[in-house]
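agent: user wants the structure for Membrane bound O-acyl transferase family-domain-containing protein from Lentinula raphanica. delegating to structure tool.
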Amino acid sequence: MASPSTQTPSFVMPLSFFIHALGVTSRSFNVRRSLFAVILSISYFTIFATSTEDPPLNYGYATAMGSLAFQALDFLVLNESSKFVLVAQHEHDDKSFVPRHLRAWQLILTPRGIGWAHEPKDILPPHPPPQPRHTFVLSQLCSAAVWLIIGDFVNLASRSHPGFQVDGSSIADVGPFMRILNVFLFAVPSVATLQIQYKMLCILTTTATLYRPQDCPELFGEWKEAYTIRRFWGRTWHQTMRRWVSAPGNFIAHDVLELKKGTKLSAYTKLIIAFLVSGTIHQMGDYALKHQSFFAGGSLSFFMLQAAAIMFEDSVIDIGSSLGICKGTYTWSLGYLWTLTWFALTLPIWLDPYFHNGMANVKFSLIGGIWKGDWTGSSVKLPLPLSY
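agent: tool returned. relaying tokens verbatim.
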């Protein structure tokens, strides 16, 4: 399918967020639902009918608009905005528009629910201690600089890998050791990019006094927690999408199917729907890369496989517990090996079309510029053990 001729409007994201904030501010059932329909229409138009002619930027617009649509579904349709409560706020002004609108922005800009009653405190990293804003900003700048260098170096390595190139070979066409290394070649730059974006957001929001330094816990959980697929996705990986990928499953499991809370049927129904939502959002990004068939990408298959893997490992853990096998160094080591092997086996399903259709087009390198005067990094080639 040819790329749409309509240029993606530069104002589409701020406009959509403003409409969303108006919806959260409104106390009218009909207004909220109507504004959700507007957001859904804008999202569909942006993803399926426009293009920036830059594949990575298309991907960013598509996943951002898809995420916003599902967040709006949660806040404007499935739940009443008045049910969301700030922990430090004993009461709020229900009469004045301005305080309610400011509160709406606070809610929207905190996808993990930091400082709100729905914050999953047992899941997220602990909040940092109170500190002067200038000290916090300096620490975030230093941390972002470190992640910039780490991400740039590993990204240069991935660009020396034929499987990470546009129209390249499969990342699975390498030796077994390299299959494992592929996981890190993808994950580290991804983590670095998200960390830098989050730290810049923390700097902006704390400087603007919208939030305090203690309202900015780390984006990622402890990597020592990632010894199962469930714990990797539920504790270690960033939880920014957790609320809006879970809301549809909660609604379907409890309100539509009326499944009893706490049962495996209820839990697995919500699990499958959560990964279906996440897979759909990422699939929108896959589609936007080249505007081919919607199912040309591999995101939906990859994320649905994660749900299957979690149900499988739950069964294995239950069998182990019934046999008296307790947690320990041996089981943890086996868990880490299982998790790493699983991603080494399944990531090509997602990443082959992801990189081959355009995400490998990112051409900037701080290291390349300083080292060789090549700010695209194209001349930097790092040796990789591809055949091992």
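agent: one observation worth passing along. The longest strand covers residues 6-7.
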